[in-house]
Amino acid sequence: MEETKPNSDCNVIVNPNGPLMVIGRIDIKHADGRIENKEKTTAFCRCGASANKPFCDGSHRKIEFIG
Questions:
Q1: Which of 7, 32, 53, 57 sees the fewest Cβ atoms within 10 Å?
Q2: Contact by Cβ (8 Å): 19, 60
Q3: How many other CB atoms sit within 10 Å of the CB of residue 60?
């Protein structure tokens, strides 16, 4: 796995029964090796039901995710 530089300008919030919110600039390395840059707030799926993984699409509400 390729090493990445830590980014101290990033905060992570675990929303109760919702997504993992990452606030700040991040680089996302997808399974296919593609790198995607996000600059502001990014919501990551925690429930497993998103059709847009790794990102949240609000499916946690439909399935009444608890976590």
A1: 32
A2: yes
A3: 22
